[in-house]
Amino acid sequence: MNEREVKILTDRLIPVPEKIEFVDGNDYIIENKCRVAVKADDIAGTGEKVKKLFYSYWGVDAEIFLEKTPWHGDDEGYEVEITPSLVEISAYGIAGVMNAMKTLRQLAEVQRGTERVKGYFLVQCRIADKPAMPFRGIHLCIFPETPLWDIEKQIRLAAAHKFNYAVVETWGIFPFESHPEFCWADKKIDKNELKRLILLGKELGITICPQLNLLGHASASRSITGKHAVLSYDPSLQPIFEPEGWSWCLTNPETRRILTDLVTELHGFYDDPPFFHIGCDEADNIGTCRECRRRVLKDLVKDHICYFHDLLAARGARTLMWHDMLLKEGDPRWDGYIVCGLPEHQLEQLYKELPRDIIIADWQYGYPKNKPEDPEPQWPTGRFFKAENFDVVMCPWIDVKGTGSLGKFAAAEKLFGMLETTWHISHGIEHAWIYCAAAYASWNPAANPGVTLSTRLSLAQHVRQIGWDMGIDEYTLAGWNQYQVDPGHHPHRIV
Ligand SMILES: [Zn+2]
To answer: Ligand 1 mean position to 242 CA, how many Å?
Structure first.
């Protein structure tokens, strides 16, 4: 197989496997009774899953041969060998087998020479693959403007690109049973639909975890809009927030009572996942009310975070929090990197008193310029928290170069992982910047073909496959933009 052919096939694979070697010769025909051997240490559910996926991907009834076989590699890693008569998948268990199937779906090609699809084939190859880091997350926002079909597409795409966690931040649209007033009264989402997506995630191999901002961002709205999901409609709840409405009032015991209910309800609704993100970023206006501003802010915040950490730990969940309030602006150590702690907050020693099983989500959205002899950023904030014995996930956004660099950094430093953010800009060209670049960076940062026309067209094919799975038949739901002309940054709710 020549270089061009190898490149064509490799560009279809997002992320690129750690090792893939193509072999010349006859193809493996995907057809009824095609033979698939599954070798796993823990075979539970693997045979049924492979059979089901062969049917849903390619419409064929494959013959599965299961064999319990010891596996000494990564739990999510896998090996595949394709010969003309057999596909052989080896892994520890269901997670690795599913990752193998995700690769095969991207690799399979439709047979030529007919008007309609008659079948698919796979080229002969050997693949040995594993993730560079255990936590590969995508952070998704559900705004009042976000239709849930768009979130479903992003969850499906993230799963297809081998992300294994999605952190879902709901922006004032989750109708709490415990406190219905903590949601826009006229923008409640259908909880059954969200529940369906949480269960869908399990089926696709991506665990959906909730986020609730427990420090700033208490308005559940973007600050530049002046909206407040609670106070815009209900002024009676003002004591729960600081006077500006941006942060929770940490001295008011009613705040803690309500937030305990909200956290508990959300975690239960998401089926008690192993992680819960408590936000804690950009909390500029904390400690401003009469009671809070006369207290030592560090002690208030510490008590608040530790309380919710313990609450979640008792429920079996680890706490994730953004890093930025823990580091002081103006400290030369972080020059050029994102930190948000204001000098007057005096929170820069707080990290010392936080439980070490909190996972620090270090969001760095730019690509800082360094000395010419040192072309890679040093990402000192991530290094700092690792040295302080925290698990760290690096969090890029839409800076493709930065995303690639953060992936290499996270892999080299053996960090816990990455959490790719999407915010209000995850469509248009940014869609590719997120779903190609971050998938490369968090699974196999060493092989990063970049976001080229070729990889973007592969992404479009993956998005179409997801559309077929969802039965999409509306113009505005196809692709990753709702419209082609003046598409804007986000889909608009269809009413
Ligand atoms: Zn207060």
So the answer is: 5
Q: What homologous superfamily does CATH list for 135-477?
A: Glycosidases (3.20.20.80)
Rounded Cα distance between 229 and 255, Å, is 16
Alpha-carbon distance 43 to 41, whole Å? 6
Distance 249 CA to ligand 1 centre (A): 4
For residue 249 the two structure tokens come to: 């009032």
What are the residues facing 207 on neighbouring strands?
A: 165
- 167 alpha carbon, distance to own chain's centre: 6
**What is the whole-number distance in angstroms between the Cα of residue 150 and the centre of ligand 1?**
37
Strand ranges for 298-402 from DSSP E: 318-322, 359-363, 391-395
The string of DSSP letters for 149-214 reads HHHHHHHHHHHHTT--EEEEEE-S----SS-TTSS-TT----HHHHHHHHHHHHHHT-EEEEE--S
Between the alpha carbon of residue 238 and those of residues 42, 220, 222, 234, 437, the distances in Å are: 54, 14, 18, 8, 42
Residue 338 near residue 326, CB atoms below 8 Å: no
14 CA from centroid of ligand 1 (Å): 47
Among residues 312, 108, 288, the alpha carbon closest in space to that of 209 is found at 312
Q: How far is the CA of 132 from the centre of ligand 1 (A)?
A: 43
Structure tokens, 111: 């047979």
* Start-end of CATH 3.30.379.10 domains in the chain: 7-129
Whether the link from the prior residue into 253 is cis, omega within 30° of 0, is: no
| CA 265–ligand 1 middle distance (angstroms) | 24
pLDDT tens, per residue, the chain with 495 residues: 899 999 999 999 999 999 999 999 999 999 999 999 999 999 999 999 999 999 999 999 999 999 999 999 999 999 999 999 999 999 999 999 999 999 999 999 999 999 999 999 999 999 999 999 999 999 999 999 999 999 999 999 999 999 999 999 999 999 999 999 999 999 999 999 999 999 999 999 999 999 999 999 999 999 999 999 999 999 999 999 999 999 999 999 999 999 999 999 999 999 999 999 999 999 999 999 999 999 999 999 999 999 999 999 999 999 999 999 999 999 999 999 999 999 999 999 999 999 999 999 999 998 887 777 778 899 999 999 999 999 999 999 999 999 999 999 999 999 999 999 999 888 888 898 899 999 999 999 999 888 999 999 999 999 999 999 999 999 999 999 988 887 777 665 433
The residues near 108 (Cβ < 8 Å, ≥ 6 apart) are: 30, 57, 58, 120, 121, 122
CATH class of 7-129: alpha beta
CA distance 301 to 342: 14
